[in-house]
Prior knowledge:
618 residues, alpha/beta, Rossmann fold, pyruvate-formate lyase- activating enzyme, six-stranded mixed β-sheet, 20 helices, binds iron/sulfur cluster
Amino acid sequence: MKERLEKLLPLVETPARYTGNEVNSIKKSINEGTIRFCMGFPDVYEVGMSHLGIKILYSMLNDREDVYCERVFAPWTDMEDLMRENEIPLFSLETQTPVSEFDFVGFTLQYEMSYTNILNMLDLAGVQIFAKDRDERSPLIIFGGPCAYNPEPIAEFADMVIIGEGEEVLSELMDLYSTHKNNYNRKSFLKAAARIQGVYVPEFYKAEYNDDGTLKRFDAVEAEVPEMIKKRFVKDLDNIYYPDNFVVPYIEIVHDRSLLELFRGCTRGCRFCQAGMIYRPLREKSLETLKKDADALIESTGYEEISLSSLSTMDYTCLPELTDYLMEKYAEKRIAVGLPSLRIDSFSIQTAEKIQQVRKTGLTFAPEAGTQRMRDVINKGVTEEDLISSVSEAFDLGWGHVKLYFMIGLPTETMEDVDGIAKLGYKVLDKYFETKSEKKNKKIKVVVSTSSFVPKAFTPFQWVRQDTIEEITEKQRYLIDNMRSKMINYSWHDPKVSYLEGVFARGDRKLAKVLYSAFKKGCKFDGSKEHFNYEKWLEAFKEEGIDPDFYTARERSVDELFPWDFIDMGVTKAFLAKEYQKALQGKLTGFCKFKCENCGFNEFEEGWKCHVYSKSQV
Ligand code: SF4
C-alpha cells in the first residue's frame, strides 16, 4: 500500500493530509490481541485535526495497552478520485491499514451536512453502508458527537451510537470487546453493548409512523435492551483522562494551537442553543488541574498559542487566576492565550486586554439578535448598553477590529428585529468615531455576520417552524441594502445549506434513503461552497418520495412524539416546553450556575447534584 500511495501523493493538493507520522502521533506494535480502533472524522484533515474530542479520545484509547487507535479523515476529492482509479481503499494514517480491517470505526457527528461524507468514506473503505448488510468480518461502525442526540436520520448506517460523552463509554466498550474478541459473534456483542449506559444499537429498535408522517411509536424489539437510552456524562473532570500531548500536524490546520478545556456544560440557557442543553450539567475543572494540563501541553507541542476552550469560557470561575498564571509564566516566551467569543461585559474586555499583550487579535461578540425583545425571546440576557459600553472600552484600549455575530430567522422575528442588527452595526461604528482615547486604533472594521437559525432537537425551540429559504433570503437582502458602509463587512450563510441542516437536525429514520440517494448522486462535502449541490439533493428527496418541508415548515404540537424522545438526556421535555412558552412571552430564565432552574438534571442520576455557586465565588 505504501508504495502505491507514494506514487499518488505528488499528484494531489496538500499531500501531508495523508502521510501521518506527525510529532506525537502514536506508533504501536500490533499483536493478535490488539483491539484496532480507527477514529474517523468526516471532513478533511485540517478540520478534523482541530477537533478537541478526537484528540482526547485518540490519546485516551492509545493509553490502553490492548488498544491501538489510528486516525482517518475524508480525503479531498482529488485524492478520492485517484484512490478509486487505483483501487486503493480508505486507509488509516498511522499504519496505512485499510479501514475495513479494523475492529471498530468511529465517526464524530459534528454537523448534519457531513453525513454524506460518512457514507462516502464507508464506501471508499469497502465497508457495507447499511448496518443490516454487515457481517461477522465487518468492522463495528460507531457514531457519536452532538448530532448523535438525534441519531435517527443516520441510524440505519450505525452499529452503535454513543449518546453523551465518550470517555467512559468507550473504555467500557473496549473492556467488553476484549472479552468477546476471541469468540466473536456480532449479534451477541451488540446485545451486550446495548446494556452499557449511553450505547444505542439502532437495529434493536423500531419506529412506526402515523399516516401524516409523524412518529406513532418507537419500541425496543430485542429482549433485554433498554426502552430509553440514557446519556453518559463524566461527573468529575479533575479525574478524567486529559492528554498531556497533542499530535502536531506538519501543515496549518483550522485551529493550529493547543486547546485547554476549562469546563463542560453551559448554564446560561440560551433557548436556541443545543450545546447549552445537551452538555449539561456544568462541571468545571479545578485551577490546579488546568495549570498542570496547560504546562504539559505547552511543553509537549511547542505551539505558540493555547486556546481556552469551553462553551462560554468567560464564565469559568477561576478565569482571572488562570489567565494570571499563564501570562506570568508564558508571556515572556511569547506564548499567546486565545479566547473564543466574549461574553459582553467590561470584565471580558479587561481579561482580553490582559491576555492579548502577546498578540492583539480582533474581538468577537455574540449579541445574537438585534433588538432587546428578540434577545429576551432567546434568553440571551445581554442588553444593547452592555454591548455598546464594551465596544467603547475596547476602542479606548486600541482595538479596531470588532466582529458581531447574529442569527436571523429566530422564532417570532419581525423585520424590525432584523433592522435592529443593521442599526446595532452602525451604533458600534458611531462609538468608534466618538472615541477620544490616545490609544485609539487608526483602522476600524466592524464585521457583522449572520447565521440562519436552525431549530434543533432537545432545545426549547424544537417545536418551531423554521424560516423558509425565501424568508431568509429576504432578510439577508435587507441587511445587505442597509449596511452599505465601507467600514462594515456583512457576511451570511447560504440559506439552502441551513434548510437541509434543518431537515436532518429534526429528521427521522425515513431520511436514511434520501441520504443514501444523495450520496449515490455524488453529494459530499455539503458544507463547502465548492461542492454543495442543492439540485441533486432536491432530486434525491423527490425520487424517494419525501417532502423536506415536512421537517422544517411545520410548527409541532406540544404533545407530538419526536424521533429523539427515546433518549433521556437529563433535561426534561417538560422543562423545554416551559422554556418555549416563556420565550413566546419574552420572559427570561436565570443563569443556573447561581440558582437552579429545575431543568431535571438533579433527578437524572443517583449520586449527582449540580453545584450551585454563590456570586461571590465569581
Ligand atoms: S439541575 Fe439546575 S443547576 Fe443543574 S443544569 Fe439543571 S437548571 Fe442548571
